[in-house]
Amino acid sequence: MTRTEFWQGNTACAEGALAAGCTFFGGYPITPSTEIAEHMAAKLPKKGGVFIQMEDEIASMASIIGASWTGARSMTATSGPGFSLMMENIGFAAMTETPCVVVNVQRGGPSTGQPTMGAQGDMMQCRFGSHGDYSVIALCPSSVQEMYELTAKAFNLADRYRVPVFLMADEIVGHMREKIIIPDSVEKIPRKELEKGVLPFKAGDDLIPGFATFGKGHHVHVTGLTHDERGYPCATNVNLHHNLVKRLVDKVENARHDLADFSVINPDAEEVFIAYGAPVRAVQQVLHDRPGQDIGFLQIRTVWPFPDFALARFKNARRFLVPELNFGQIAREIERHVNVPVLSIPKLGGDLHLPRELTAVLERGL
To answer: What is the DSSP string of 220-242?
Structure first.
């Protein structure tokens, strides 16, 4: 059985986390994500979980890392300025292979920018914002339904790959209200526990170590320093550092086909839109208004790792058109993988692309 609700996107995000078994939320209020924290504060304790309002976003990120090591499914939610403050601890989560979920309801930047307006300006930051080499998983919802579903999915991916997983929403999707269908339950994939006698950072063929939950009898040292398979610091060993960081990257990048989540419409088209997040809705309206025309569409839900192989589905493409609420962050990524023109259609200031604006670009042709 399912039920139908009329929810705000941020409410759907919080409910998706609760359905996925989130038991700890550490966060700090920030527009336009605050409704997520408010909903979790009201609902999580009633389900036996813990909600803590931290003193800032630095502490928020630290708290969900610590909670994860006790076995909790942990999450925080923020927006651009808070996301920037989390970057050092996000790198710590990557190095220590700590599963956790970070929701970023993006707003206009840089700096404090536009607290109440939508944007997608943090897409490259979520991939490269902390220093050093590592890889992450980032999901982008375009509807209230996807806010629910992708939040729940993020917890499974975090536990499966032992990485911080980002839900890169935007103010438009976070604050819109629309019908959503709620299932009775969502799939919960538990993290792989560390087997007795196995070193805590020794990985198998999947490049992912078992997780040594605190209190389960394991001896484990957790550090952001370069470490050996025991977890002990070994920061001057050249080969060890190379092999460790390569594994941190490869465990995600090698799984890009499994992680990919995208939809293809009209793969034989010559003119192809590519979008993620709120701009998806403008493209969908263009397709609705121009039925039967030679227009293709690639909607990307998992933006990182980037599903470059999905571009090859459009074998006749003469041009890719990429509407984004930034100055072309993912358009530049697309350019790396194709031999045809990529036209960035940027829009800043907080308004979504109008269908007529995208139609005008189509009609200008190559």
So the answer is: ----SS-B-TTS-B-TT-HHHHH
Tokens describing residue 60: 């928020």
Give the DSSP H/E element, type plus range, for residue 137: strand 137-139
Tokens 């959503």 locate to 180
Residue 71 corresponds to which tokens in the numbers above? Answer: 């076995």
Per-residue pLDDT, averaged over 55-75, amounts to 98
Q: Which amino acid is at 307?
A: P
Per-residue pLDDT of 171-211, as tens digits, reads 999 999 999 999 999 999 999 999 999 999 999 999 999 99
CA–CA distance, 312 with 266 (Å, rounded to integer): 13
Residues 266-270 have a mean pLDDT of 97
Q: Residue 324 has what DSSP assignment?
A: E
pLDDT band for position 366 (cuts 50, 70, 90): low
Mean pLDDT of the region 335-354 = 97
Q: Which domains does the chain have, with CATH numbers?
A: 2-183 (3.40.50.970), 262-364 (3.40.50.920)
Alpha helices in 131-194 (DSSP H): 144-161, 171-175
- Residue ranges of the alpha helices (H) in the chain? 9-19, 34-43, 57-69, 80-96, 123-128, 144-161, 171-175, 238-253, 256-259, 279-289, 329-335, 355-364
Nearest-5° angle of CA 233, CA 236, CA 240? 75
- Taking only the tens place, the pLDDT of each residue in 308-327 is 999 999 999 999 999 999 99
- Cα torsion through 241, 245, 248, 253, rounded to 10: -150
